[in-house]
Amino acid sequence: MHAIKGDQLVQHGRVVGEHDKVAEIVEVMGQDGGPPYRVRFEDGHEAVCSPGPDSEIRHREVQL
Question: pTM for this one?
Fold first, then answer.
């Protein structure tokens, strides 16, 4: 898993009917873009996450 500041961390719901949690990566704390990440969720809550297999990184689009 590799991310940069500004990417999104998506934690998929684990049971039927549970929504995905989307957070913006505000700090990469691991080496070479690896976890853990400090993230800010849509409600403003911040946490340090080491994502598991139910998560994905959505890279922000770089505009030229």
Answer: 0.83
